[in-house]
């Protein structure tokens, strides 16, 4: 198997799950809220990078993630 094939397969699976959850959210909620929250996908990527890839996080990055999570909480309530 060529190098990176496992990551490509995993990325395809995760992308499919993301698409399905987006459409499930659109079926249950307001499109303006669902699409705004889904646009904050980078929060999940940043947290995954720290947890699984050993990326470093600065105070500025941490505050950005915290404010994005607060935005999700505020917009969904």
Automatic annotation (TrEMBL):
Residue intervals of the EamA domain: 8-76
InterPro entries attached to this UniProt entry: EamA_dom, EmrE-like
Cited SUPFAM superfamilies: Multidrug resistance efflux transporter EmrE
Pfam families: EamA
Transmembrane segments: 7-26, 32-52, 59-76
GO cellular component assignments: membrane
Alphabetical keyword list: Membrane, Transmembrane, Transmembrane helix
Protein name (Swiss-Prot/TrEMBL): EamA domain-containing protein
Taxonomic lineage of the native organism: Archaea, Methanobacteriati, Methanobacteriota, Stenosarchaea group, Halobacteria
